[in-house]
Amino acid sequence: MKKNRQRLMNLTVSVFMTVGFTVLPMKAEEPDYSDTAYWSGMCSGLLPLTAAEKQSCTAYMNYISGQSDVLSQRLKDIENQRAAIAENVVVYAKQVRQLQMQADSLNGSIYELTSQIDAKQEEIDAKQADIDLRSQQVEDAQAKIKDRIEIYQETMRINRFLDVIMGVKKFQDLIRVINGISDITSYDEDIMGQLVVLIEQLNKDRDELEAAKKEIEDKRQLILDQQNEILALKYQAQIIEEEYRKQSADLEAKGNVIAGDIDKIREMMRDITEKLNQVTASSGWTYPVPGAGINPEAGTWHYASGGVHLGADFAGGLGSAVVAVGNGVVLKSQDGCPYGELGSTCGSQNGNGSQGGGNQVYLLTKINGSLYAIKYLHLLAGSPIPTGSIVIAGDTIGALGSSGNSSGPHCHMEIFFLGDGANFTNYAQNWNGDFAFGCGWGSAALNRLCENGAGAPCRVKPESIFR
User: Fold this and answer.
1) Contact 282/258 with Cβ under 8 angstroms?
2) Contact present, 301 and 449 (Cβ < 8 Å)
3) With a threshold of 0.85, does the pTM exceed it?
4) Cα–Cα distance between 212 and 430 in angstroms, integer?
5) Exposure check for the chain: N or C terminus, fewer CB within 10 A?
6) Radius of gyration of the CA atoms of the chain, in A
């Protein structure tokens, strides 16, 4: 009995601490970028972002860096590398895929941590229910002891003790006073023994609950750190891509050559003279990638972030059909490039296509009485229609991919105005193999824009046709 009393007095203070436990309040919903769960999920995720989403994520990154000294310093360090990146952009471009792989790995870790947090939260909820139950049991035991004291007051005439007992502020004081009463029955001892057991279990539950809460908070902090690291990795990739884009057109110009098999192509075109003569002009333009839209960030003539871009990028789902915009013949087809990456030169091997263009199709077509060449780049491996194929508007000529110098699924299209459609057969049989169709490469290509008054051959802005 004395042992139970001593244990009871030693544990009483922790009981009241445990009974008073409350769950931390949920964070109130805040406007704009303060909803970090939403923005971190979107900006750190695996899905490709639209131009507007990228802009929003850049603003979010700035918002977060204002709250994190570590992230702020990481971004400054990356920005300070810009000059080195610009000077060795081809080398840095090879790092983009590795950066994305690191970000993907961290996203996988975040997913796993989130699952662990959900499971741990279930444990916390169950533990809190146990604590609530035991707290009620403690209160019930306390009430029984109080009732017994009142009975003692009536039978033992200990008014002076009752006055003290009813005035105590802490439970350990109550026990100390009770110890001054010599006539404790076995019933009272049993109740106090039960109370000791309840208190011990309550303290154990409390310790386990605090440990679980600490584990969750540590994992949430780890998620936050990893999300910030993903933002930094994606910013680094963005800087590299921006600098590469500024030089990409001139880098492409250095690597492009005349088609290596031009004599074979000319011979093929002479063999299909009758078929070429039967090709009629289309009465209008057919949209090249049904269901896809033109990426405004990669606008024709210039990227939004700077750098020459000589065509329009039709962004859509991997494997989407790419079709002929008009009736005509495939002058040249290039296949064999795998899924690409920034800086890849695949596509120009053995003079088979534009450097970095991946899997390609060059279509000669006549539309509304005029002659045009259409250049389709970055097609899915195995999908380009063969050289010499006669097509009508709407025929599938390939599938949307991301081969060559590409950081995501899209079809890059360039349109060249070549003059009178009546010259269709003659042009096909005498094409000189120039993948720019006499309109030049790189920055110099901007000198031959139809919209600026240049005559055939000149470059047509795809957005002026496909809206």
Assistant:
1) no
2) yes
3) no
4) 77
5) C
6) 38
The candidate with the shortest Cα–Cα distance to 340, out of 325, 359, 327, is 359
Sign of CA dihedral 350, 354, 356, 357: negative
Phi and psi at residue 360, in whole multiples of 5°? -135, 155
Taking 70 as the pLDDT cut, the residues of the chain under it are 1-31, 45-51, 148-189, 350
CA dihedral for 403, 295, 433, 442, sign (positive or negative)? negative
Number of Cβ atoms within 10 Å of the Cβ of 297: 18
Residue position matching structure tokens 């077509």:
365
Q: Looking at the DSSP assignment, which residues form a beta bridge with residue 413? A: 312, 376
Residues near 12 by Cβ (< 8 Å), separated by ≥ 6?
Answer: 170, 171, 172, 175, 199
Q: Which two tokens stand for residue 47?
A: 């899905």
Token duo for residue 348: 């120009």
Q: Whole-angstrom Cα distance, residue 92 to residue 323?
A: 34
Give the residue from 104, 50, 95, 90 showing the smallest Cα distance to 410. Answer: 50
- Tokens matching residue 338: 């795998």
Each residue of 213-231: pLDDT tens digit? 898 899 888 988 888 888 8
Coil vs helix vs strand at 298: helix
CA-CA distances (angstroms) from residue 303 to 52, 241, 243, 250?
14, 11, 11, 14
Are residues 240 and 91 in contact, defined by beta-carbon separation less than 8 angstroms? Answer: no
Give bridge partners of residue 370 from the DSSP assignment: 367, 420
Contact 301, 309 (CB under 8 A): yes
Angle at 361 between CA 360 and CA 363, to 5 degrees: 155
What is the per-residue pLDDT across 371-410, written as a single tens digit (0 to 9) for each? 999 999 999 999 999 999 999 999 999 999 999 999 889 9
At 24, the amino acid letter reads L
Arithmetic mean of pLDDT over the chain: 83
d(CA 232, CA 72): 9
- State the distance between the two ends of the chain, measured CA to CA, in whole angstroms: 90
